[in-house]
Amino acid sequence: MNKTKIILKPKKEDSLLRMHPWIFSGAIAKVIGEPEEGDVVDVYFNNGDYAATGHYQIGSIAVRILSFKEVEIDFDFYKKRLASAYDLRLAYGIAGTEKSNCFRLIHGEGDFLPGLIIDIYDTTAVMQAHSPGMHFAREIIADALMEVMAGVITEVYYKSDTTLPYKAQLDPQNDYIRGSYKGNVAVENGLKFYVDWLKGQKTGFFVDQRDNRALLEKYAKNRKVLNMFCYTGGFSFYAMRGGAELVHSVDSSAKAIDLTKKNVEMNFPNDERHEAYVKDAFKYLDEMGENYDLIILDPPAFAKHRSALHNALQGYKRLNAKAFEKIKPGGILFTFSCSQVVTKEQFRLAVFSAAAMSGRNVRILHQLTQPADHPINIYHPEGEYLKGLVLYVE
């Protein structure tokens, strides 16, 4: 059976020549065949030359490129991509260490598998599809993964109910597609934590903040720490190990706070330095006094689409302005944005505007981004989604 052919419009080849992994629907001149959501299609330049092979889907992004060379998208293809990603993690010491058994194995475009996320927690791989093509390939990917990481991974949990395009009507069922539940405790830099991949956000834990949590630990000694949007408390238990005088964790989700309490207790049993509160972040910031000299602001994405960009930037400005207003003199502010549509420059401008509103002297100590197991495809700068600043506030 011949694959569908996608023919590009004249002068719409520039992004492909730059090896950008997306083809937008407006760049397509003609479709030869009747592709369905998730089908593998071949893409051709307007002059008839082969351009790329990828997954087809209905929407603004019409094709996600898997290869710029003519290859079969089969078991061997996925095995090679997975093995390459695993070798990279082993090479820079994120995988295969005694102190950590959790990391991101596949980061979509950054590992040349657009639409696919795989996070590893001890012996469990949590797989998440962001495209119909990866959803339909989940079984063959699971087989390849079990072979590449034989002896390490014994379970694959598939969790894509909130990430697949709703218009595709794929009705994904979150479930184990290899193995079964064997516990949900993972280790990061020697600290243990429970991972809720069954009902939690994303794949259950934000492994992208690992390096930034380790940096925070170095600043925490003898400080009073506020961890806003704490989720499951990652920054909180790093701050405690760093010698914080007290740590307060705040999140609007009662489930998140319950998990934070369990994670802190597992690492620091009966430690009275920690308290947790279920409360709206803005309300907590409004009502709190000038009690803290280290504040972490790690909110969920304020903008998931460009239409929300303006409101998101205003939200970041308002949030940071409140922190600048309340933080003690000599305080340290860790502030982040995980909104992909917000650029580093836009985020920095929002934070700068907030600092100016406070009238306080503020200095940048660190400019933060995502760790090495969340690599950025150099041809896909949009993959740099995590932005952060560490600021000293006089």
Question: Can you tag this structure with a few keywords?
Answer:
394 residues; alpha/beta; Archaeosine Trna-guanine Transglycosylase, Chain: A, domain 4; Transcription Regulator spoIIAA; Rossmann fold; seven-stranded mixed sheet; six-stranded mixed sheet; 20 strands; globular
How would you characterize the overall build of this protein?
With 394 residues, this protein is of the alpha/beta class. The protein folds into three domains: 4-67, Archaeosine Trna-guanine Transglycosylase, Chain: A, domain 4 (Roll); 75-188, Transcription Regulator spoIIAA (2-Layer Sandwich); 207-393, 3-Layer(aba) Sandwich (Rossmann fold), CATH 3.40.50. The protein is built from ten helices and 20 strands. Strand 14, helix 6 (234-241) and strand 15 form a beta-alpha-beta unit. The protein is globular. It starts with a strand and ends with a strand.
Short description, anyone?
This protein has 394 residues and is an alpha/beta fold. The chain is 28% helix and 27% strand.
Question: Which secondary structure elements does this structure contain, and how are they paired or packed?
Answer:
Layout: E1 4-8, H1 14-17, E2 22-24, E3 28-32, E4 40-44, E5 50-56, E6 61-67, H2 75-91, E7 102-107, E8 116-121, E9 124-129, H3 132-136, H4 138-148, E10 155-158, E11 175-178, E12 185-188, E13 191-194, H5 210-219, E14 224-228, H6 234-241, E15 246-251, H7 254-267, E16 274-278, H8 281-287, E17 294-297, H9 309-326, E18 331-337, H10 344-358, E19 362-368, E20 387-393
Parallel strand pairs: 1-4, 9-10, 14-15, 14-17, 15-16, 17-18
Antiparallel strand pairs: 1-3, 2-6, 4-5, 5-6, 7-8, 8-9, 10-11, 12-13, 18-20, 19-20
Helix pairs in contact: 2-4, 5-6, 9-10
